[in-house]
Amino acid sequence: MTRLVRATDVIGMPVVTLDGDDIADIKDVVFDGDTGRVRGFTLNGRGLLAGPLDQGLPAGAVSSVGRDAVMTAGPTTTVSLRDMAARAGNGDVLGNHVLTEGGTDLGAVADVILQVAPGGVVDVVGYDIVAGPALYGDGRRVLLPLPHTIAASGEVVIVPTESVELVRPNLAEFGDAVATLRHETGDGTDAVQ
User: Fold this and answer.
1) Residue 67 three-state SS
2) DSSP conformation letters of 5-27
3) For 87-137, how does the pLDDT look when each residue is reduced to its tens digit (9 = 90+)?
4) What distance, in Å, lies between the first and last C-alpha atoms of the chain?
5) What whole-number distance in Å separates Cα of residue 53 and Cα of residue 2?
6) Cβ neighbours of residue 131 under 8 Å, at least 6 residues apart?
7) Angle CA 35–56–7, to nearest 5
């Protein structure tokens, strides 16, 4: 079974090894701007005076993401931030405008919705956006599902026009919308909860 979570909810979670060692906290989520997938996580040290670490946790090293912690096999699963950043490209989408392929401005990205699958697979499945006039015009927050492949430029995210019909107000209704969009666009995915 998969689970949906906002990226901001993962930030601050402890990183714990399968042996129970508490090794770090999640500082931020690193996205691949070209593919829309999660590359990994930057880390903060644990403790009162600890700061940012020069090591990151690649997405492939994540065993699971629970409600209270991110699990990994051990402390040796981290990589240098330089290596992780070089492979990620420009993945900062917060604040970007979301446009349909036809040029309609849907609003701005406020958060990223992640799908966490068994085995720790983490995928970007949608955006939490502040809706613009083309959707509701009142600035409410809505969830927009994404296919596996999107275009992001650093200022604008381009989404399929058909994804607008699947905008949902909450995570409870969002999983089916993601599955429907990915089925319609041929990207295929399992249902999410």
Assistant:
1) coil
2) EEHHHHTTPEEEETTS-EEEEEE
3) 555 556 778 888 888 888 999 999 989 888 776 677 888 899 999 888 877
4) 7
5) 29
6) 106, 107, 137, 138, 139, 140, 141, 142, 167
7) 55
Structure-token match 């990226």, residue found: 7
Q: How far apart are CA 68 and CA 65, in angstroms?
A: 8
Q: How far lies 28's CA from each of 40, 44, 78, 143, 170, in Å?
A: 9, 9, 14, 21, 23
Residue 8: both structure tokens together: 């901001």
For 116, other C-beta atoms within 10 Å of its C-beta total: 23
**Amino acid in position 192:** V
Alpha helices in 23-100 (DSSP H): 81-88
Q: Give the length of the chain.
A: 193
Give the global pTM: 0.79
Query: What's the longest Cα–Cα distance across the chain?
Result: 51
Q: Per-residue pLDDT for 161 more than 80?
A: yes
How many helices (H) and strands (E) the chain has is answered by: 3, 14
| 3-6 vs 79-80, strand pairing mode | unpaired
Q: What is the pLDDT of residue 90?
A: 53
